[in-house]
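Title: [Solved] N-acetylmuramoyl-L-alanine amidase 3D structure

Original question kept below for reference.
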Amino acid sequence: MIASAGNPASPAAGKPIICIDAGHQGKGNNDKEPIAPGSKTMKPKVSSGTRGIATGKPEYKLTLEVALKLEKALADDYKVVMIRRSNEVNITNRERAIRCNNAEADLVLRIHADGSDNKSVQGMSFLYPSAKSRYTRDIAQESLAAAKVLSEAILRETAAKSKGLIPRDDLTGFNWSKVPSVLIEMGFMTNRKEDRLLSTPEYQDKIVKGIKAGLDLYFNPG
Ligand SMILES: [Zn+2]
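Solution (posted by the thread starter after getting help):
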């Protein structure tokens, strides 16, 4: 059974289970996997992600840096399940979702950074599974509710520009998920200023603090 985040767990019921998925990995895997259970649409198992235009840092390194800080920050109040703690892994997006399903996560946090051909674009986006997709409609409402609370808390902490809450029906990691999921695009690594900022420990700490504050509000409202 999957705990409902809309009905927050009492302390007796144990700590909420958070599955942290640091996006991408050291080596992308361009073999294909179905985008959803039973779907004929195929996508690469793990794309290689974007890269910092100023720092040269690949997205997979940045996402792991933040994920490891987040793991520490959540350790006392949550049961944390890490999809990866190293860059030398080969775990497809479908497998990541299934691991979080099997962990009966109350929420999956997928940590990513963005890229664009337009170097002036910056800001954070909060992606959640679409209510219109038959694969994700059962988790859409709770995912959106979590995304809203998280986005407000993170934006308050970081003062980042917001690109808003964005429903998606084309992400393998969402379509295979049976538990609420939110994907945080922390900023644009193709924007020189934001790329540098994303790699500073101070800014990473703000992101982590914002995520923790959002989770605390979501799982213990009031
Ligand atoms: Zn990414």
